[in-house]
Structures are given as C-alpha cells and as structure tokens.
Amino acid sequence: MSHEWRNVLLEPSATILEALDIINKEALRVALVVDKNHSLVGVVTDGDIRRGLLSGINLSDAIEKVMNTAPTVAPLGTSREALAELMESKGILSIPLLRDSQVVGLETLQGALGKPRCENPVFIMAGGFGTRLRPLTDNCPKPMLKVGNKPILETVIRSFIKAGFCNFYISTHYMPEQIHQHFGDGSDLGVKISYVHEEEPLGTGGALGLLPEDLPQDLPLIMINGDVLTKVDFLRLLSFHVENDADATMCVREYDYQIPYGVINGEGSKITSMVEKPIQRFFVNAGVYVVSPRVIQSVKKNQKIDMPTLLEKHMEERQKVLMFPIHEYWLDIGRMDDFNRAQMDILSLGLE
Fold first, then answer.
1. Residues 87 and 203 in one domain
2. Structural domain count of the chain
3. Which one of 277, 300, 304, 320 is the catalytic residue?
4. Among 298, 288, 299, which residue's Cα sits nearest to residue 231?
C-alpha cells in the first residue's frame, strides 16, 4: 500500500486545477475527493480530466464535473493478489482502500505487481540542425545540449526508463557521432539502443521507413521529438491508444491566444456583437505520438513525409487517429528562451 496516499486527498470544493496539481506532483496518478469525515466522495484520474478538457470544461470548474462518483474500491485488508486481479479486470491503476466508508489507504497496480517492464519500442527523433539555437548548435547537435548536468536526449531516455521502457531507437542526421559516443548500445543505462541514420532529412514521419523489419509486429511504438521535455504518463498514453484500437495517437497541448483588439461582428453595416480582446483556445501538436505497426509499415524506405501528412492519410482510411491532451509539464526546446527556461525548470521537475 502506498504511504503517500494522504497527499492526494481533496475536499469537494476543490477545482479541477487543484486536482491537476496533485496528480502532477504525486506519483500516484489519482486524486481522492473526501468529505470532512474522510468518507470517499469521488475519484479523479488524469483520464477524467483529459476527457473533461476535450468536452470544453475549464480548469477553474469544480472537481465534481469530472470526478467518478462510483469508483472501484476495496476493504482494507484485501490481499495484494486480489487487488491486482481486480485492477487488471477493471483496467484501472489504483484502488482506494476503505474501512466502512472512510478512506484509509490506496493500492496501485504497480505496487501490487512490482515495476512493469514495457517492451514497446521508443523512437526518438534526434536528427535536427537546431538552427534557432545557434551558436550553441554549431558544434553540438541540439539533443546533446546540456540541460542541468545531462544532455536533453539523456533526460528524455531516462524518463522512459523510469516508466519501464527498455527498447530504444534513435534517428540521427546532424553530427550523429556525438550521440553514438555518448549512448553507445545503451548498456550503461541498462537498456537497448539502436540507431537509424537519415542521409538527408526525411521529415518528421519519414524516419519511420528506416526502422528495421524485426520490430515487434503486434506492439505500437511511441515516437517523440528529441528536444521535448515532458512528464506525461507514457504508460497511460499507451493504454489509451491500445484501448481505443487507434492507428495513431497524437499528444496535444492546449494553447491560448489572446487577440489584442476588440473583435466586432456584424451583419452588413449593423454591429451585432462586440468582444474585447477575446481569448481563443486551440489544441496544438506536442511532438509525442503512439504509432501502430500498420502506420509504420505504410512508410517506404527514404520516403519524405511529415507526421501530419502521414496521419491525414490514415485518417482518410480508417478514422482511427486520436488525440491525447497533455496537462502535465511539457516544453519544446526550440528557441533560446525555451532553452533558458529548461535550465530553471529541470531543478524542480524531478527529471534530473
């Protein structure tokens, strides 16, 4: 049983943003809503929040709008084997433990089974020139620039290792020898690392055509840009993809843009409404994907194609391309101010 379960308790008056803060800070991936007597009122997971974001709910809304008011629970004293079996049958990652109706503990699937080992391949795009970070990238590929005391690429790989992944492929183009020399075959990190090299840039999707034919035929692959730092739950992302029988899943990030003027709507010369400096919200590509074998196999060797074009092609075929909102920390280190921000963020993120 987790000893940190008291850290994930919330009152019913809490907001979705407060629940997010708890889920992102703690490793338990859940928030428990309790009343003054510690009786369980509801459970909130990051999946509940993602579904709420997709349906237009705001982070300032009350937690009751997204919480599950009839969660799976178990009495204190239930064996770990029985709890693991119940969680696997229900497809959930944790179970509140109750005495009468009061919360007295929380068991997680990982805690009941031990640390999982995930065989799904991880494909990291590390071939870019990093032109917007010159002169830092004149003699160093962008993924090898240090954030804190490690290269960006090592931090990305270690975040996957922490989640249980062990099978990595890295796509290189610009100064590949520095990446090879630092990581080798991955044995120093306790994982397997293989490389594919783009003789010329093939676009964000083209490198898929260079992957070896002996990739697992039944396992989807996680694909990520080598300059993205994130605390997204990779196992939850993978489960979402598999459960929905997706061809591809794109991680998306909510992006707000405030129009700096008053917006006027009208019919002919008649003003019908006025909105002062409205905020428009969009979902933008976060540079993290899950890709099923059928999509990988559709990319020919040395074919130039970007990921949006590749995904649009499969959308036309099966309508099985989904999006997965990221509410966790995410930073694309594309510009100098992003790089400087990463140097400050890394100290407080637990990614070091």
1. no
2. 2
3. 277
4. 288
Domain CATH for 144:
3.90.550.10
Q: Write the DSSP assignment of 73-91 as a string of letters.
A: -EETT--HHHHHHHHHHHT
Of 170 and 54, more confident? 170
User: 152 falls in which pLDDT band (50, 70, 90)?
Assistant: very high
* Same domain for 136 and 104: no
**Tokens at 318, concatenated:** 């099966």
Phi, psi of 170, deg, nearest 5: -125, 130
pLDDT in tens, 108-121: 776 655 556 788 99
Instruction: Tell me which of 80, 113, 146 is where a domain ends.
Output: 113
pLDDT of 214-236, one tens digit each?
888 789 999 999 999 998 989 88
Helix (H, G, I), strand (E, B) or coil at 230: strand
Domain that residue 34 falls in? 5-113
Q: Would residue 277 show up in a list of annotated catalytic residues for this protein?
A: yes
Last residue of some domain: 113, 146, 180? 113
pTM confidence score? 0.68
Alpha-carbon span 110 to 116, nearest angstrom: 7
pLDDT(351) > 70: no
